[in-house]
Amino acid sequence: MLTKRIIACLDIKNGRTVKGTNFVDLRDAGDPVTLGALYATQGVDELIFLDISATQEERKTFASLVEDIAKHINIPFTVGGGIRSVKDVAPLLEAGADKVSINSAAVHDPNLIEELAKEFGSQFIVLAIDARKLDNQWTVYTHGGTQPTQHKLFSWAKEGQQRGAGEILFTSMDHDGMKSGFAIDPLRKLNHLLKIPVIASGGAGKKEDFLEVFLLGCADAALAASIFHFNEIPIPELKKYLKDHHIPIR
Predict the structure, then answer these.
(1) Contact in structure between 239 and 247 (CB atoms under 8 Å)
(2) In the Cβ-directed half-sphere of 208, how many Cα atoms lie within 13 Å?
(3) What single-letter DSSP state applies at residue 3?
């Protein structure tokens, strides 16, 4: 089994970290700079910063906030939100991002994936997919989970890989914030369908959920937000638990 990663996610709105349930009912979770620095010292493997309202507000990600966070961490740092073109990426990389995450803009124009991969390399490109199960199919949503699309999870993930995405970040909107475990079945299917790493997001509530997502969901990485923000599961405790259960963890 390849080494697994634990990722902390900072969902940002109006410069603050927020967290909701099923993408709604957002509540304040703290200062992103403080949280990012804390997670880095606690041993989280990567940090993801998602400016969740940038697309809806039709603006670019706050590069200054990205820079402030980057100054306080020494771990891989992915940034997403409001990226619509190649020229939007360079300021984020200059501000300290190691990778960028694209979602709505890629659905609108799939060629963007190829353009970014050609310009910066596939290893820099994370295709984020927000989906929920409708009529027994996983339907892809955009604009912070507010707009359903014609895309389906598995075909869109495969197309993203073919166009040059280096990773898939799959968030189950049905599981988001519910703390009842990750969406194991679609994660396992994505793992078998794709050759690139899959990050599991949505549903982490207890340490056993991470063990399950690695063993049964075959995820390459597992992402969580609120359980870290509100110190429900300390990161060092989680990593020790996984090591004790023979999960290769960084």
Answers:
(1) no
(2) 3
(3) P
Alpha helices by DSSP H, the chain: 32-42, 63-70, 89-95, 104-108, 111-120, 153-163, 184-193, 207-215, 226-229, 235-244
Asked if 80 and 128 touch (Cβ cutoff 8 Å), the reply is yes
In angstroms, what CA-CA distances link 75 with 42, 91, 98? 11, 19, 9
Q: Identify the architecture of domain 5-244 in CATH.
A: Alpha-Beta Barrel (3.20)
Q: How far is CA 138 from CA 129, 156, 212, in A?
A: 11, 10, 21
Name the residue type at position 218.
C
Predicted local confidence at residue 17, as pLDDT: 78
Q: Give residue 233's identity as a one-letter amino acid code.
A: I
pLDDT in tens, 112-141: 999 999 999 999 999 999 999 999 999 999
Tell me the sheet residues that pair with 28.
18
Which of 129, 145, 116 lies closest to 53 in space, CA to CA? Answer: 145
* pLDDT per residue as tens digits for the range 136-158: 999 999 988 889 999 999 999 99
pLDDT at 25 over 60: no
- Residue extents of the structural domains in the chain: 5-244
Question: Which positions are catalytic?
Answer: 11, 130
Q: What values do phi and psi take at 53, rounded to 5?
A: -105, 0
Mean pLDDT in residue range 63-77: 92
Q: In whole numbers, what is the pLDDT of the chain averaged over residues?
A: 91
* Mean pLDDT computed over 147-175: 97
Q: How large is the C-alpha radius of gyration of the chain?
A: 16
